[in-house]
Write a structure and sequence with these properties.
Layout lengths: L1 E7 L7 E7 L3 E6 L4 E6 L4 H15 L5 H22 L1
Antiparallel strand pairs: 1-2, 2-3, 3-4
Helix pairs in contact: 1-2
């Protein structure tokens, strides 16, 4: 399992840590500060991953811009994937 820790700061959530754990066929995404996590299939398109994140965050959060947070997470997954490809 490979893990990425990244600071994200949408919605005024300062010092918010985003954890991305890559398994064989999925990503496990978590943000402990808001007590939230989900699992995404690596085979899903970026659009499907965004939709899954948006739905999960909307269900979990009562305030804040879920769309902005889902965009930040999707971008972080993309950066993570690109950095892994470059290191191979």
């Amino acid at each position: 399992m490979i893990t990425l820790l990244e600071d994200i700061a949408p919605l005024g959530l300062k010092d918010t840590k985003l954890y991305i754990m890559k398994t064989t066929d999925s990503f496990v995404i978590s943000i402990p500060k808001i007590n939230w996590s989900t699992e995404l299939s690596k085979s899903d398109s970026t659009h499907d991953q965004f939709d899954h994140l948006l739905h999960s965050l909307t269900f979990h959060m009562f305030e804040g811009n879920c769309s902005e947070l889902a965009e930040c997470i999707t971008a972080s997954i993309g950066k993570y994937e690109n950095s892994l490809e470059e290191s191979l």
